[in-house]
Amino acid sequence: MQVNENFEPVIVAFCCNWCSYAGADLSGTNRLNYPTNVKIIRVPCSCRVNPMFILRAFQKGADGVIICGCHPGDCHYTSGNYFTRRRITLLYSMLDFLGIERDRTRLEWVSAAEGAKFAATMQQFTEDVKALGPNRRLEDLRCRKQ
Amino acid sequence: MQRIGVFVCHCGTNIAATVDVKAVAEALGHEPGVVISQEYQYMCSESGQELVKNAIKEQKLTGVVICSCSPRMHENTFRKAAASAGLNPYLVEIANIREQCSWIHKDIATATEKAIILGRTAVAKVHLNTPLTSMESPVVKRALVIGGGIAGIQTALDIAEAGFDVDIVEKNPTIGGKMAQIDKTFPTLDCAACILTPKMVEASQNERITIHSFSEVADVKGFVGNFTVKIKKKARFVDETKCTGCGLCTEKCPMKKVPNEFNMGLDNRSAIYIPFAQAVPKVATIDPNYCMMMKSGKCGVCSKVCSAGAIDYKQQDTFIEQQYGAIVVATGFNPIKLDKYDEFAYNQCPDVVTSLELERLMNAAGPNGGTLLRPSDKSHPHTIVFVQCVGSRCDDEKGKPYCSKICCMYTAKHAMLIREKYPDTEVYVFYIDVRTPGKNFDEFYRRAVEQYNVHYIKGMVGKVTPKSDGKIDVQASDLLAGEQLHINADMVVLAAAIEPDKTARPLATMLTTQMDTNDFFTEAHPKLRPVESATAGIFLSGACQGPKDIPETVAQASAAAAKAIGLLCKNSITCNPCVAHSDELMCNGCSSCEKVCPYGAITYVDKEFRMPDRSTKVRRVASVNPAVCQGCGACTVACPSGAMDLSGFSNSQIMAEVDAICK
Predict the structure, then answer these.
(1) B633 — contact with chain A (CB < 8 Å)?
(2) Which of A47, B38, B61, B99 has the fewest Cβ atoms within 10 angstroms?
(3) How confident is the model at residue A3 (pLDDT cuts 50, 70, 90)?
(4) Which residues contact B346 (CB under 8 A, 6 or more apart)?
């Protein structure tokens, strides 16, 4: 596959309010750089992320979607991230079925104290999505930028 | 038609240095529904807020987007400002263009572009925001303090002083914690027991304080103002209400070979024991692992000598359940285990001790009655080597990455006390840095060096080798002189790193509070909210939040108490209105949401519906109790018919955000 050097992927990150969003804030406070491609949507808990949102993002032209939640056992709502984990596992098999590379979706645990991990994760994910190239399979062509 | 106002903050140069705020305001001004788009130096300032308020009134805004710092910082500020201008506070959205844009990106062009997208996303969301009203929930006027060390005691005393009932849950048979084991305190060298034990007695005598010793928190349910906590009172096989603490049973107990935890295992106690003379409550406890009656059924001496009839070999763990409005965590710390540090021969040589063991060796109530003797042969040591940072500031897996903070000062104290009491003893301290930031701390350390002639050597100890003549060879490097040293020592004292208590991690899970990677509890804000956890109603006291010395612990304990009192003073608190709600017409009564709800906030009710043919039909539909729902959103995804939605983070709002980012 030809890798387009100038390809700048659109990456949607869902971050839970209590751990990962705070982790993202911490990486900001510590001035830890990660690519501008990543845009964060704040959700109360990672379990608020409906797989539908992920598919919607791919349909609208996102090249990668990352969901970040509290570490297992640390969920502010006790058990939310366990639901997320199961749902994303199921989503993976559906993405495989649809022919969307499963590496375009990632689930990561980032605590409020892990600013460095947040930045490193986003850096790595952006690189991985860049290597995968643009998302073509589910993209609604009517949504494509001219 | 929506009328949205966008306000872009410069945050001095924090945002303006890497984001072209004028361009952001200009671009967002063209977004649909935006009627006013302004930028200002400091949006959170009085005049910045005034700007927002005036715009709300003059432009009759129906939604506000603030492009500024994290919503975790100033969301409430702007919500309050909007409310005071007559706009529902939940019609305000924050676009985080500082922590998540200007602070992490260097290139102005790309950062500005990202800031515009973030702003656009917030505008797209605010279009779909609905006015929300908070409900009130009552506050139970009782506090729980978990941990009965100096932090827990101080917090409980302060809360009780303010007129509220407090329960202390302590896992050990007595309150007092680590401070009870300490001999003297720096930098005043006053006796720890002399200042701690009056507080312990005060706590036990205060009628508002209930001490549950030898107890653990088994389960926590509920939320701020209304926690339900299950406390496990472990069986101590002695009836607390009958035991007078006379100590006769401990004297007569034939099983005397139990390592004494209070003296760090340096001497033995009996199987039935009272940890120390000033224990509170002064009640005996039977250790079932060593008690001969419990193990073989043959003995029963304690039961025979107890005139109060307090011994009960058949006692079982009991559980009590209690409601609390606030919970203060004060679980404290422990020195790390030194099993992985073979180079210091801690496990091989009894004369290599940790600092806490030295505290006990020097304490009048300790194994040697206060005379410093080598544990191996009970001889007086003439050369003592202190090793600093054992496991602290450590990059590898063995230790901890952080500075344990208290070691420099307690080592100076130990060195000084030893030189004072035994002037013939040479004391060497090997250190990486000496850190003495505290009131009178550096003066104290300098006294150790200048007045007491303690040999401070910058360098690390490489190897400690016990020799056949009973001496210990300490091989170390002197970094300043640039030479290798061998010291023929009698004792080696290791300043072991401190770590949070092991019970803290499961407790954090129960309390749904956050911890950092080292298992210290994370405060809500490192600077501005240092004693609150991110979970409302849970407060942090003492070393469970990070390494601390006694004055700092007491200060934080009182601060946590003040925060808890502030909560308990209220009759009711406003709940988060961002809760789930179900569309009854769409609900098919499948119970999926009920099963995933961690709070039991969803119940099913029978409701009458009018059918298209004008008949009525009773259907079973989900109903959310908004006072109990915490707004996690698990049910919204579980619902197969899409009837469940979350106010403030609705499906349509999040979809609009996704669309705006991908546009």
Answers:
(1) yes
(2) B38
(3) low
(4) B338, B339, B352, B354, B494
